Amino acid sequence: MDKAKTATDVDLAQINEIVVENSQQKWALIPLVQKIQNEFGYIPPQSVLVIARAMGLFPSQVQGVISFYEQLYTEPRGKKIVRVCRGTACHVRGGKTILKLVKQHLGIEEGQTTPDMEYTLETVACIGVCALAPNMVVSNRVYGHLNPKRVEQLFRKGEG
Ligand code: FES
To answer: Considering the entire predicted model, what is its pTM?
Structure first.
C-alpha cells in the first residue's frame, strides 16, 4: 500500500475482486477483511455490504467482526503511526508531557490522523522497553529516553 486512500478514492471493483477471490468459506471472513485492509490501509465502509453479500452474512455480522478487532481500522490512517507509551514506567518519567508535545507538534489528538495523511497518533499500554522510558514508536522504530528537546528534533527534522 503506497498511501491510505480516502473513502471516495476507493475502487469498488477492486474490493469486489478481493471479495470474490476470498469468499468461498465463512471462516475466511477475517483473512478477507485483512486483505482488504492490507490493500487500502483500512476497511472502507462500502466494502461491508459487498463482503456480507458474498459470504451470506448480515452486514451487521461483518461490521461486528470488524469492530471487535482493534487491529482492524475503519478509517484511513497516516503513512507513519506514532505510538506514545502511556505505561507506568513511561508515565512516571514524563510520558504525559511527551504525549502533550507530540499532540502539539502534529496538531492532532489521540486516534486522529493529520490532514496530509502523514501521521496517525495512538497511545499504547507498554512498548516493552520500560528501561528506556519515556518511549514512543514511530513506524515501528523505538525512540527512548525522550525529552521535550528530542521530541522537537524528531518532528522538526521529519525523522519521526
Ligand atoms: S511503560 Fe513504557 S515501555 Fe513499558
So the answer is: 0.73
